[in-house]
Amino acid sequence: PQAIAQLMADEALLPIHTHRGPFKLHITPKLTVLEGDALAIDVDVAGSFDAVYDRAAFVALPPSMRAAYVQSLLRVLRPGGHVFLIGFVYDQAKIDGPPFSSDEALVRGAFTGCDVRVVDERLEAPGPKFVAAGVDDLKEVLLVVEKR
User: Fold this and answer.
1) Cα distance between residue 53 and residue 43, in whole Å
2) Predicted local distance difference test score (pLDDT) of residue 47
3) Which of the 8 DSSP states describes residue 102?
4) By the number of CB atoms within 10 A of the CB, which of 17, 35, 57, 80 ranks highest?
5) Helical spans, DSSP H, in 61-123
6) CB atoms closer than 10 angstroms to residue 46
7) Considering Cα of 87, then 93, then 94, then 95, what sign does the dihedral take?
8) Across the strands, what pairs with 18?
9) Over 80: is that where the pLDDT of 46 sits?
């Protein structure tokens, strides 16, 4: 809810709020934002989308849950649609997630049948958890996944 409120404020949008199934919808002329459990999403409830923004979901999920999450996104993403995914890259041998390391190869393996590319990356100042584990090369990456 906080991320959605911040998006609406940043873009000076005044959404209409409604519910569809288990989801709260925030509807504006520019975009529709769904709030709810991404694993429960399907076209019958949510419709289909041109884009998905993943700020902290994929990196927070343990490997055992990623396939279900990816399939839920691909169910509602139109062909040619994009997932904009913020990931982190670090030596996971030093410390385990969350957030889990999510480099281009890992994301490509999860989103089979899609095109995946890194469009931006930057070094991040590691938080105390990472510093204590000896991680000093934490990178934040923006990956774009395109559904074929």
Assistant:
1) 17
2) 77
3) -
4) 57
5) 63-76, 104-110
6) 21
7) positive
8) 25
9) no
